[in-house]
Task: structure prediction
Amino acid sequence: MFFDIFKCRFKSLLREKSGFFWTLAFPLILSTLFFLAFSNLNKIDEFEKIKIAVADVQKAGDGFNAALRNSGLFEVSQTDLEQAKKLLSEGNIKGYIECKDANDFELFVQKSDFEESIIKMFLDSYRSSYSSAEKIIASNPASAKDVINSLSEEKTYINEMPSGNGNSTVIYFYSLIAMVCILSSTYGCSEVIKIQADQSTCAARINISPSHKLKVFMASISAAFIFEFFVTLIVTAYIKFVLRIDFGTSMGFILLLCAAGCFAGISLGAMIGAVVKKPEQFKIGVLVSVTIFFSFLSGLMYENMKYIIQKNAPALAFINPVSLVCDGFYSLYYYDTFDRYFLNVSILAAMGILFSAVTYFVLRRQKYASI
Amino acid sequence: MQAFKLYFKIFKRSAFFMVLLYLLIFGLIVALFALNFKSSSDMGFEAQRSRIAVVDNDNSKFSKAFASYINENSQPVELGTGEQAIKDALFFNDADYIIIIPKGFGEDFLKDGNARPQSYSLPNSMRAVYAQRMAESYLKLFDLYIKSGNFSFEQAKENVEADLALKTKTSIVSINKSDTGSLKRTVDYVAYAITCMVILSVSLTMLAIEKGDAKKRNLASPISASKIGLQVFLGNAVVSLICCGMIILLVIAIFREDFFNIYGAWYSLNILIYTLVCLGMSFLIGNLVPKNAVNAVCNVIALGGSFLGGAFVPQSLLSETVKNIAVIDPIFWFVKANNEILSISTFNLKTLSPALYCMLVQLLFAALFFSAAMLAIKYKRTKS
Result:
């Protein structure tokens, strides 16, 4: 009996074209578009040597020339003023320096971006060092040689620590999978509606049948869970193996997280279906809107939103199932330990159990005097 | 003009709400854009500031002076506690550079100049390079003064800060003052909004007219089929132009005087031409796709076209493969035309020709869609 109902519900889910499109085809299309559009997004802030021109460099002297060369920041063209202006107007360089004296420069740029700011900072820094050297030598002329040696010495004053190589665009893909998991709430809701005799004609027929209502419900909700779990796995596999988005190395943990997400999603939908006494369209509309809003908060439309919520309203991140699934993937990808991953999975499981318990207590012993 | 009137009655019932919804969403996006970018001044050079977090575990005189200099010359970031807070801040670009000052740093640095703070940053980040150079400059000059032996801590601090306050004269050579790029980025986004608005309004209304009682009543009326077709098409064109007009008005409402120049005029013409492409596309969809699939088709075309064409992510950041594929996407040509308009400093036929070429390609797309729609209509009529 259980298996028959399970089989029928599973077949029925497979035949729902609209559900298939929004839970499977749409995420596949969207992830492909993310992949095509965001593949170079991380290069925006990548440092490359800045192209500049220096006019009348002989006026600044060898010290300035050496400092420019040793800085490792620039690709320098030494030209006259007219040529420098032309290079800037044609967009071939980010700026040009007009040397007026050993310690007097003027910088010409087109914008106030970081590349232009780095050129300015180099010049400011050179002037500052020059001024410091003058003051120290004035206070002790015998130290001139040491000061000049110290200034030309390539020495770092800050120890750089290894910081990992995170690509924040992965958050878009993780949120998308999380959205697919929690969108399963629509299936959970539909399954509950299908056993509530006052909600659909199909449920009215089921209610007068001799089968146990809980058994029917368990069979159909299991079918919905298995269906949604497979859909989520297809989306995840496509993103991981076809688009080659990094998820860390633990396949087992990815499966567990997807299962926990689908369980939380299905049980959330079942609870809403049981508790809210409104037409099906209304309930589904509310679930879809809430899931999309939760997805927005977990970074589907803007990846930093996840961090903004985590930093300013951490409680909201803990009650948002989409954010929990997304954070689970992020923990697997970025952290060396699994503490945060297990915290996310545990909260999702607890949510699922709580929602299921509420659904059970609302649905049990439900009788209809008149339908 | 009964069919024309009927068109608007049906439009009001079937698509008006969706059009308003998209207009609202687009309005929010444009407002966010305006908030983000309009404040950037083009009056003179303004150096950028990296987002730096300083964690001072030393709290000595020197570490406080160092932290204070960094905070004054950057956008200071407050960090949570623990290693995960540091990793999160870097991953989500909340901080470009994190400096951890260890205990005893001040005393050790002033003694022999060998103590070092630690830094965390994303590898090869431009903002981090900028922040690192700034922090290094302070420590280098302080080391120089202290090592010379002729300056007390207070004197060294005063001199270092005075030296670092020396600034190089910087001038902006302005090439194009009318549009700083934010207006153009907003106009790029228009492609998504217009595509959704026109496809939904035209396709849903046409499907409603072509199905059920409305179609039967039209067929039974004394007006010829060609006249009805013409009036429905006129209705489609008017609705599309209203969508186009509303979007342009919205952009004007937010950018105001920044829009009223030659760039604004050319952007408007480009939007109008792209609206014709959408009209053709919607006409085709309305004749090919069943009603329950219009929403899905609309989302796929609008989102897909916008991602591929560079409406959401600048075309300069798209890979060559994507750009090669995107030549079959009208939004690619719409955004390319905007790019070409933005790059013009003197408007004449020669400088305008690349933009005009992109507009011509869009018109060819529109003609292609209209022809395909006509063929679809003819095929359906012959079949029925």
Remarks:
- Chain B has two domains: 2-40+179-383, 51-164.
- The mean pLDDT of chain B is 87.
